Backbone:
């Protein structure tokens, strides 16, 4: 499974795109989320979606 | 599979006395070894050395397969520990460390929700997964279902103090038996368990393929489970390779062998000393003998330097002399007796010389019956009377004498009680010596160990000249050797005995049994009955 078809990444990108649509381009959001997913490698699968989304949101907010 | 290998372990107490020396034994794969010995002989210290809590002064402990420990206090946990915390504590160290890390990371995350804290939390979760935390949670669920009948998610925040002693023990045992550790150290796993609980424990220990080293005073449990017995006595330990049934004979044989070796050493020593003396005199007269004299001196010095073999360990001599006396043929007669609304009315006839075991559920009124017969005011209906010359003597459970706690033993003996004349210090000390209590004569009753308190109570029974012994769980706090001494004393006792007990081994020495059922029915049985359920009562 590559990072692009990881459900955790897809869900996070979809939700964060809605949230940050006014301020950021979707490509940026996708890149940030994928970086977060890479940084969180090793985390148990069940905890991944939540952790990826939280970390990505923190980083996006810091970057805006 | 795991094993424990103890070689040449030595431990010295803070006051300089050597508690254990040259302790060597091996508990091989899949063995179930019992660790026995008198109180204070060093059993718990040895377990702590094996468990790694204490570092031995000399020697080494080798083990493989991971070690799970159940400590003695489990069963009496009264602080705010939760079920979750408790299960974490008996889990392998890696899981425990990972759980601590997750807890800490969660706390940090609650305070500061920044990038670093999130990554730290993610890292802790990854560690938790790697350490087998998720598998452990699955096991814990099985454990709580088996021990408490509730899934883990529903009881993990429950406080341990809301569980009974037996439930705490079951929880710990299930966790250890289902856990990954292959070597289990169990310090008195049977405490707080009722007889069905003990049977369950026996079954589980027989089924498990793990290596088990356990401490217990329950002779029935020892006889059924242990396939070898490690004895701590005389400052060292030795192993009997068979079960508990052949243990007393093996122990006796070992003591005799030690005494024989010691005797031979002393004879040889005396012979060498005499030889040196003779040669000394001869050397004074003839210079030719001087070299033989010196040779004999060197030989003696070498012999003494090697030191004597260990002597046989001092016997714990408990000589109980319960005499009793001839009484009327009918010692106790009760008609339509009913106590404090606890049971249905029953009839009872006990004959002179009977040994009656009183069994049954907790809370069914067994102790009440003994107290009534001892002449204490217990609310009852129906009639009862004691036969001619029947003098009751009550042995109560150890905590039942609040008035004695801050008095010394000599003082208690000196003052006497109604029915028990006081004795002077000389006689008191002589009696205490026979019960192995001489050193504690001026100690306060409340500071004695459970076993010492029990022995002292038997001594009081002896002095009171009772002819009807009413014993409430007399073997509860006695070590194996004192319990055997009590049984021997009861066998020689001329009179009648009524005893409440859940000690299956002790119960075998009784002729008939009075069973208090959980439904309030009191009936007689020729065989011991131990599986009456606990009395259900609204709380």
Residues:
């Amino acid at each position: 499974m590559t990072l692009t078809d990881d459900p955790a990444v897809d869900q996070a990108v979809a939700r964060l795109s809605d949230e940050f649509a006014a301020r950021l381009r979707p490509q940026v959001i996708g890149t940030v989320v994928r970086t977060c997913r890479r940084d969180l490698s090793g985390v148990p699968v069940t905890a991944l979606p939540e952790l990826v989304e939280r970390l990505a949101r923190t980083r996006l907010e810091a970057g805006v | 599979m795991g094993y424990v290998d103890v070689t040449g372990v030595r431990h010295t107490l803070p006051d300089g006395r050597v508690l254990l020396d040259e302790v060597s034994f091996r508990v091989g794969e899949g063995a179930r070894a019992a660790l026995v010995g008198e109180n204070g002989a060093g059993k718990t210290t040895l377990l702590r050395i094996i468990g790694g809590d204490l570092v031995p002064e000399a020697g080494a402990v080798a083990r493989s397969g991971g070690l799970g420990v159940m400590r003695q206090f489990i069963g009496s946990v009264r602080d705010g520990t939760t079920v979750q915390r408790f299960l974490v504590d008996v889990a392998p160290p890696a899981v425990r460390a990972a759980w601590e890390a997750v807890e800490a990371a969660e706390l940090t995350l609650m305070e500061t929700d920044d990038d670093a804290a999130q990554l730290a939390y993610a890292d802790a979760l990854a560690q938790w997964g790697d350490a087998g935390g998720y598998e452990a949670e699955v096991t814990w669920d099985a454990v709580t279902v088996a021990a408490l009948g509730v899934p883990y998610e529903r009881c993990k925040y429950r406080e341990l103090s809301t569980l009974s002693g037996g439930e705490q023990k079951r929880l710990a045992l299930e966790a250890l038996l289902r856990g990954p550790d292959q070597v289990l150290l169990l310090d008195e796993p049977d405490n707080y368990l009722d007889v069905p609980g003990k049977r369950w424990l026996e079954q589980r220990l027989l089924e498990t393929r793990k290596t088990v080293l356990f401490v217990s005073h329950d002779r029935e449990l020892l006889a059924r489970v242990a396939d070898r017995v490690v004895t701590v006595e005389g400052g060292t330990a030795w192993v009997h390779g068979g079960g508990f049934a052949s243990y007393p004979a093996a122990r006796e044989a070992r003591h005799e062998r030690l005494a024989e070796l010691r005797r031979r050493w002393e004879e040889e020593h005396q012979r060498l000393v005499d030889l040196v003396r003779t040669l000394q005199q001869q050397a004074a007269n003839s210079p030719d003998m001087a070299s033989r004299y010196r040779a004999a001196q060197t030989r003696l010095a070498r012999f003494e330097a090697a030191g004597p073999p260990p002597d046989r360990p001092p016997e714990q001599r408990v000589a109980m002399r319960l005499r009793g006396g001839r009484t009327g043929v009918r010692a106790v007669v009760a008609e339509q007796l009913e106590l404090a609304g606890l049971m249905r009315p029953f009839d009872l006839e006990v004959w002179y010389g009977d040994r009656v075991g009183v069994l049954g559920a907790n809370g069914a009124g067994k102790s009440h019956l003994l107290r009534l017969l001892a002449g204490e005011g217990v609310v009852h209906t129906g009639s009862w009377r004691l036969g001619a010359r029947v003098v009751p003597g009550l042995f109560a459970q150890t905590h039942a004498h609040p008035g004695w706690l801050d008095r010394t033993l000599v003082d208690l003996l000196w003052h006497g009680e109604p029915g028990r004349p006081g004795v002077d210090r000389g006689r008191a000390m002589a009696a205490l010596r026979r019960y192995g209590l001489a050193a504690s004569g001026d100690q306060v009753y409340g500071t004695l160990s459970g076993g010492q308190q029990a022995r002292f109570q038997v001594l009081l029974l002896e002095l009171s000249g009772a002819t009807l012994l009413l014993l409430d769980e007399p073997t509860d706090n006695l070590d194996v050797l004192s319990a055997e001494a009590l049984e021997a004393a009861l066998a020689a006792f001329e009179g009648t005995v009524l005893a409440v007990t859940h000690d299956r081994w002790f119960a075998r020495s009784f002729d008939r049994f009075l069973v208090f059922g959980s439904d309030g029915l009191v009936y007689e049985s020729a065989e011991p009955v131990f599986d009456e359920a606990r009395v259900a009562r609204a709380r």
The longest strand of chain B covers residues 3-12. Residues 327 and 389 of chain B are 5 Å apart (CA to CA).
